[in-house]
Each structure stands twice: as C-alpha cells, then as structure tokens.
Amino acid sequence: MNFAIVSRGDERSDNVKAKMKQYLIDFDLAYNEQEPDLVISVGGDGTFLEAFRRYIHRLDKTAFLGVHTGHLGFYTDWTADELEKLVIEIAKTPFHVVEYPLLEVIIRFKKDEKPLKTLALNEMTVKTLEGSVVFDVQIRGEHFETFRGDGLCISTPSGSTAYNKSLGGGIIHPSLEAIQVTEIASINNRVFRTIGSPLILPKHHTCLLRPYQKDRFIIGIDHITKTYSDVKSIQCRVARERIRFVRYRPFPFWNRVRDSFIAEAKPKEEWQ
Ligand code: NAD
Fold first, then answer.
1. Can you give the residue range of the structural domain that contains 91?
2. Are the C-beta atoms of residues 5 and 15 closer than 8 Å to each other?
3. Is 166 in the pocket of ligand 1 (CB under 6 A)?
C-alpha cells in the first residue's frame, strides 16, 4: 500500500510525520506523495482540509485518516500518543472505509471565462467586500427568494458542525446525502424578506445564486478564501464524488459532536 503524510508544518506535527513515515516504511509500506492509497493528515481540522484539497483529483483512489496534534478535531480522531498502535493497525489490518457526501460548487463568470468547478468538504461561503450581497436564490430552477444580507453559507453534513453551526444551522448526520443553505445576517424588513431558517436540500436539488448589481465576491471554499470578479452565478449541489475515511475503530458522529461541544459542560452532580 502507498501512503502519504500531510503535516501542519509545526515542530510537533513534523516530528509525528517523520516517526510515522519511518515506522510505516519499516513495515514495507511505500511512501508515495503522487499516488497514495492512504493519506494521513497530522495537525488539526485545517490540515485535514488541506490534505483533502491536495488529493481532490483522486478521491476514488485515496482514503483519508487524521491524527491530531492539538485538540480533538472533527476529522482527526487519532492522537499523536497512539502512534505505535495506529501504525500497527495500518500495517496489519485491512481498513474499513466510511464515505461522506461532498458539496459541488460551480462558479460561472460573465465573460467567456471557463466555469470554475470544485468540491468542498465543509462549505462554500459567499460574502462581499463592502455593503451587502443581493442574490436571486433559485432552488431546482425556480425562484425561491431574493436574499439581501452579509452572505450565504452552503455546507455539507460533515461541515454542518463548522461555520454552519455558528450561523445557527442544524447538525446533519453525514449518512444523509444533503446540503444546507444558511443565511449570514439577512436583512428582513418591509422591503426585503428571506425565509430566515436554514434550508436542507436533498441530492439532485440544485441551489443557484444569481447576484444583482455587484459581481465581485469573497468566496470561501473550506479553509481557502479568494476574491472573484465578474461572477454570473454560483451553483451548489450534493457532489457525485465522496470522501472516503479510513476507520480502524468506531468514531460515531454523535459522540464526536458531544465530545466537541458538550463534554466540557459540568455533570449534574456539579450543578450549583
Ligand atoms: P480556523 O483555524 O479558523 O479554525 C476553525 C475551527 O473550525 C477549528 O477549531 C476547526 O477545528 C474547526 N472545524 C473545521 N472543520 C470543522 C468541522 N467539520 N466541524 C467542526 N469544527 C470544524 O480555520 P481552519 O482550521 O482552516 O478551518 C476552516 C474552517 O473554519 C472552515 O471550513 C469553516 O467551517 C470554519 N470557520 C468557522 C467560522 C465560524 O464558526 N464563525 C468562521 C470561519 C471559518
């Protein structure tokens, strides 16, 4: 089996990477950054998002695994202290794969520029440099609303615990093939009206954003944010591609949600 390791680049993560690489080579696995069957990210969720982006062109041939060198992450379930155990699992045990849905984003431009098609593991966000954005929001080809506000966030189920959650979106189990559209500070008054609630769209239901007036936007795809000009539309739907996670032990989604957001809360006995 070929493997590659993507490190966050800090001293601790680089040390873990070096150790892991050597252990796995000692077990006769081949280090191959071009065509890995297994990609290990060492760092945090941001490192995992970077590893995903680096190997986005071969998702059908690559499975991912995350080791965290800081706090427990959503995509990183192994700790750096479990290195030896993990290396033995990788070398000796055939891995079980769990697939999660992704978001397909197509940005089309006014001029004859080629549309930009990409995938997001967490979400796509669209905002403007100044003032508010105004979008004709279409769902399945039909006008749904005219959105005016700071922006919109369209997320995957596994990304529903990230930016989407901060915006009041719901948490969606990644076994559901869906995307969620969440508002970022919509303007609602006697002139402008939006639905106000997050929308959950099933597979095959496309959400199309067509801007009015402005055509220059700040578009974030996971951890990468760029400014795009001459934007004609932004189309989002559940992608045909999926991400494959390697599992050597159960990592239930709801446990992860609890451990990340609830576990620190005081148990009943300690209530004052
Ligand atoms: P970062 O360093 O700003 O970290 C953002 C935080 O989001 C980290 O704690 C990370 O662990 C966490 N995170 C990332 N993916 C997650 C997920 N699927 N579920 C729960 N938590 C998750 O940025 P980064 O590490 O490069 O990550 C980029 C992500 O940050 C974006 O995809 C976006 O979801 C998130 N973000 C959140 C907010 C917000 O909540 N207000 C604002 C901007 C970006």
1. 2-95+248-270
2. no
3. yes
Do residue 187 and residue 80 come from a single domain?
A: no
- Cβ 73 under 6 angstroms from ligand 1: yes
Q: Identify whether residues 237 and 106 lie together within a single domain.
A: yes
- The protein residue whose alpha carbon is closest to atom 37 in ligand 1 is 163
* Residue of 26, 28, 45, 112 with catalytic role: 45
136 and 178, same domain (yes or no): yes
Give the integer Cα–Cα distance in Å for 154 and 120: 10
Q: Are residues 218 and 166 part of one domain?
A: yes
Prediction pTM value: 0.95
Q: Is 150 a catalytic residue?
A: no
Distance, CA of 144 to CA of 127 (rounded, Å): 19
For the chain, 272 residues long, give each residue's pLDDT as a single digit of tens: 999 999 999 999 999 999 999 999 999 999 999 999 999 999 999 999 999 999 999 999 999 999 999 887 899 989 999 999 999 999 999 889 999 999 999 999 998 789 999 999 999 999 998 899 999 999 999 999 999 999 999 999 999 999 999 999 999 999 999 999 999 999 999 888 999 999 999 999 999 999 998 899 999 999 999 999 999 999 999 999 999 999 999 889 999 999 889 876 666 676 65
C-alpha to C-alpha distance for 154 and 123, rounded to whole angstroms: 5
Are both 123 and 223 inside the same structural domain? yes
Sort strands 78-79 and 63-68 into parallel, antiparallel or unpaired: parallel
**Is there an atom of ligand 1 within 6 Å of 223 CB?**
yes
